[in-house]
Fold:
Amino acid sequence: MFGEEEMIIGYENPRINLYLRAHDMRPSLQVKHDAKWDMPGETEATDIPEMLKEWMPGYAFEGSTADSSSASEEVDAKWTPPGNLLKSYKSHGRHFEIWCSSLEDERANEMLRGMRILIPMYIEGGTCNFLDDAEWSLKRWKIYFL
Structure:
């Protein structure tokens, strides 16, 4: 995400806070630092949001979901994951459900867009570029939610 060197330069104590809302995986990004250094010559400080744009939807940069009232609100009791309920079960006194959806489903597609930044964090060289494929191609992909 940060080039071949995988380095962020030009900041003192940089902090990148990534929040994902639990029910719909809507991301929100906060970039903070104690100071921004003046770089010598033509070297410029890393533009952190710019480097992350290809991995996150534009609304992730608009403000913190974690600080907004929408994050603290209760999830609507009628809300369900996208797709079809495959199985429901209880374990250790808790209720669980397994849902399955095709990526042609707009809500499932948007949820995966929101969390696709996690792919390069855990898979070296991993991408999620197929989300922009034609609708007929997205039908073949399935995503499961627990």
In short: Residues 106-115 form the longest helix (10 residues). Residues 80-146 form one domain. The beta strands are 11-12, 15-20, 27-32, 35-36, 84-91, 94-102, 142-145. Confidence is low (pLDDT under 50) at residues 68-72.
